[in-house]
Design goal:
- The structure is a single chain.
- The protein is mainly α.
- Helix content is about 60%, strand content about 0%.
- It has 6 helices and no strands.
- The protein is elongated.
Length: about 170
């Protein structure tokens, strides 16, 4: 049977490395507290453990969401291409999109492929565009930069708004 102890946040440091110039006695919690719990292990702490994702890691979940997003992008690209070149196929694909969800990209493509021979051609085109977009056009470095920037900016805004709200300081400029 597993057991664990919840330490109050005021007694727990989120930093794993010892700050420069401090001794272990200066840490915000005592090792005696840790010895009394049966399920806490001090680790190297290079990565955070994220629970609640079942068998998949957060990265796997993000990859699945990106995979489905790439299907959405591919569908939008093919719709735009067909509008100028093949109006009948454009109409067919728009009608199919109206009837079927794009939340699961693979399920969408499998259903499109089985609809009719003309729809099978559209599905194959979407699969090719999805692969090409993912492998050649998507800016992976830009994704990482933007995700980090958005998280930092959102955190700063939330903390700033909270401090302004709770400090009762008037914004006089």
């Amino acid at each position: 049977m597993e057991s664990s102890t919840i330490l109050p946040l005021s007694n727990l440091s989120i930093f794993c490395q010892k700050p420069h110039g401090t001794t272990f006695g200066a840490l915000p919690f005592s090792f005696k507290q840790l010895k009394t719990t049966s399920n806490i292990t001090l680790a190297n702490c290079q990565k955070m453990h994220v629970s609640g994702f079942g068998e998949a890691s957060p990265e796997t979940k993000a990859a699945k969401n990106l995979h489905n997003f790439f299907t959405y992008v591919a569908v939008r690209i093919v719709i735009a291409q067909l509008a100028d070149t093949t109006p009948e196929a454009h109409k067919d694909l728009l009608e199919f999109v109206d009837r079927h969800s794009l939340n699961d990209g693979d399920k969408f493509c499998a259903a499109l492929m089985r609809e009719s021979p003309n729809h099978k051609t559209l599905a194959m085109r979407i699969l090719e565009v999805r692969s090409a977009y993912c492998n050649r056009d998507f800016e992976w470095d830009n994704l990482e930069r933007l995700a980090k920037k958005m998280a930092d900016e959102a955190n700063t805004k939330i903390m700033r708004d909270y401090v302004l709200e709770t400090s009762h300081v008037d914004n006089e400029k």
